[in-house]
């Protein structure tokens, strides 16, 4: 199974503010939807709450939380490892969609990163974790209005 980090990151590393995105990029949302449809998505509780507490349609939603009550159409897991185990039984690809702690853990296991680099610096309270760029090889990049999307593949395993 392919394990993929997908994130939108401002020039200053911001990925969120007040449990929401500090920008509005419809093209990036469309790309996110098209890539993740039919696949498993792993997210933290706060990311799930930012979706108004509703699962993303046509995806296997897995939420890492020790406090969230069971809900229909959502797999709730107490930790990252159990979320990854469940994801492997549900789909060919698993996407790590946030937030900061999920990305931090996913960096150790991901095969691919799809990063939308949002042009500009934004005020925020959530940041994408630093990573060793030497472990990743740029596969492709494409410019869109307001952002550039890069696809990076892991070069080697630790």
Automatic annotation (TrEMBL):
Domain of life, source organism: Bacteria
Keywords, alphabetical: NADP, One-carbon metabolism, Oxidoreductase
The keyword Heme belongs to this UniProt entry's keyword annotation: no
UniProt xrefs under InterPro entries: DHFR, DHFR-like_dom_sf, DHFR_CS, DHFR_dom
Signal peptide (UniProt feature, chain positions): none
SUPFAM superfamilies: Dihydrofolate reductase-like (SSF53597)
Class in the EC hierarchy, top level: oxidoreductase
Span of domain DHFR: 2-158
Reactions the enzyme catalyzes: (6S)-5,6,7,8-tetrahydrofolate + NADP(+) = 7,8-dihydrofolate + NADPH + H(+)
Record GO biological process: dihydrofolate metabolic process; folic acid metabolic process; one-carbon metabolic process; tetrahydrofolate biosynthetic process
Pathway info: Cofactor biosynthesis; tetrahydrofolate biosynthesis; 5,6,7,8-tetrahydrofolate from 7,8-dihydrofolate: step 1/1
This enzyme's EC code(s): 1.5.1.3
Recorded GO CC terms: cytosol
Pfam families: DHFR_1
GO terms, molecular function: dihydrofolate reductase activity; NADP binding
Family: Belongs to the dihydrofolate reductase family.
Function of the protein: Key enzyme in folate metabolism. Catalyzes an essential reaction for de novo glycine and purine synthesis, and for DNA precursor synthesis.
Protein name: Dihydrofolate reductase
